[in-house]
Amino acid sequence: MSTPPPPISHTTEMVIATVVGVAIGLTRDNFLLGAIVGIVLGIGLSVGKTLYLDYKRRNRR
Fold first, then answer.
1. How many CA atoms, within 13 angstroms, populate the side-chain half-sphere of residue 22?
2. What is the pTM of this model?
3. In sequence order, which ranges of the chain are alpha helices (DSSP H)?
4. Confidence of residue 61 (pLDDT cuts 50, 70, 90)
5. CA 40 vs CA 2, 26, 30, 33, 61: distances in Å
6. Please, what's the b/e burial string for 36-53 (b: 16 or more CB within 10 A of its CB; e: otherwise)?
């Protein structure tokens, strides 16, 4: 029986998404837009990293 892979940390993606969302919210003077952009960007970056790491793990064998 094989051991499961270690969990993926998404801290970097969340920090990037938060900074971008806050910057957009402050520059546009629209905090709701900044929050939406930050959430969407965070989800996109996290999904992208998960797919990339899964691809790397499958091709390494």
1. 6
2. 0.86
3. 11-27, 31-60
4. low
5. 35, 17, 16, 11, 33
6. ebbeebbeebbeeeeeee
- In this structure, what token pair is assigned to residue 31? 């905090």
Q: Is 3 helix (H, G, I), strand (E, B) or coil?
A: coil
User: pLDDT tens digit string along 7-50?
Assistant: 889 999 999 999 999 999 999 999 999 999 999 999 999 999 99
DSSP 5: P
In this structure, are residues 19 and 42 in contact, taking their beta carbons and an 8 Å threshold?
no
